[in-house]
Amino acid sequence: MSDYLWFEGIPFPAIGYGKEILQEACHKFVIRDEDTVMLTYPKSGTNWLVQMVCLIQTKGNPKWVQSVPVWDRSPWLETEVGYKTLINKEGPRLISSHLPFHLFPKSFFSSKAKVIYIIRNPRDILVSSYFFFYKTNLVKNPESLGTYFEWFLKGNVPYGSWFEHICAWLSMRERDNFLLLSYEDMKKDTKSTIMKICDFLGKKLEPDEMDMVVKHSSFEAMKENNMSNFSLIPEDVITNGLVLLRKGTTGDWKNHFTVAQAEVFDKVFQEKMAGFPTGLFPWE
Ligand code: A3P
Fold it and tell me: What are phi and psi of 198, to 5 degrees?
């Protein structure tokens, strides 16, 4: 059980992260025009998106996603291993990151690099991250969902407040090099989402290639695939068996929140997200 590593006001997991690398990643890393960044608050569907983008690149051929772990295909910028991999990588890079807006490398904002940002119902994120993190050594053990619920609303969870992450990153949503997706739409109409990603990245898929992208990025295929299901994560990070591909559904929070918790969450959501147009959040 670990406490957080605090960096510039944000709690990071204490394993796999370090202050020096965070300093380099946030303040010195140079994003290149040809990079594509998968940016999310944790548990929003990051690994699903990476799988889709990798398969789009190979036109549906699953060889790459079945032979190289997800963290090597799209290294995690702010982690110690990911940062070291990225700085030595040639050519157009796929980069994953959960960094909040104010910590993301400033070089991005004057570049033509593309960012794909996924939003997801924060209630489902809360449940997903509770079940994910309590099996790891990455965070303090919350002991119960009720405790994790309190921490989540206070932003006392890995990468800080969901509300702050979303509010800040959504300020980019009208930019040409920023694509906003939602987990809910990815579930409801996977093909349309893949088409949006293709348009954004300037790629084109034939119908049979599209079918292969859908097939090999499906929940079932990713759950079976050791390169995408996190089964290769070392034992010292996992305490109790770690499942990335847990349920893969929308609305699971309804099975876990009490009526009182649902009411509290609604109130906080309405207060904090009041400035955004209705319709931006497909789950509301
Ligand atoms: P659940 O815990 O609700 O099942 P991240 O990759 O950002 O850590 O997000 C993990 C969440 O995305 C998990 O949610 C996981 O099941 C879901 N997910 C991953 N791949 C998926 C897929 N192919 N289809 C649907 N959901 C997927």
Answer: -60, -50
Question: In the beta sheet, which residues pair with residue 182?
Answer: 119
- Which of 98, 102, 165, 216 is the catalytic position? 98
Interatomic CA distance for residues 196 and 182, integer angstroms: 12
Q: Write out the DSSP string of 3-19.
A: --EEETTEEE-SSS--H
Whether the CB-CB separation of 70 and 51 falls below 8 Å is answered with: yes
Concatenated DSSP letters for 153-206? HHT-STTS-HHHHHHHHGGGTTSTTEEEEEHHHHHH-HHHHHHHHHHHHT----
pTM reported for the whole predicted model = 0.96
Ligand 1 centroid to Cα of residue 181, in Å, is 14
Residue nearest to atom 17 of ligand 1 (CA): 248
- CB–CB of 49/201 below 8 Å? no
> What tens digit of pLDDT does each residue of 28-58 get?
999 999 999 999 999 999 999 999 999 999 9
Instruction: Verify whether residue 98 is a known catalytic residue.
Output: yes
Which of the 8 DSSP states describes residue 276? S
* Number of residues written out for the chain: 284
Pocket of ligand 1 from Cβ distances under 6 Å:
40, 42-48, 124, 128, 217-219, 222, 244-248, 252
pLDDT in tens, 117-138: 999 999 999 999 999 888 777 7
Q: Report the first-to-last Cα separation within the chain, whole angstroms.
A: 35
What is the whole-number distance in angstroms between the Cα of residue 64 and the centre of ligand 1?
A: 20
Helix, strand or coil for residue 146? helix
The backbone torsions φ and ψ at residue 46, rounded to the nearest 5 degrees and listed phi first, read -55, -50
CATH numbers and ranges of domains, the chain: 5-272 (3.40.50.300)
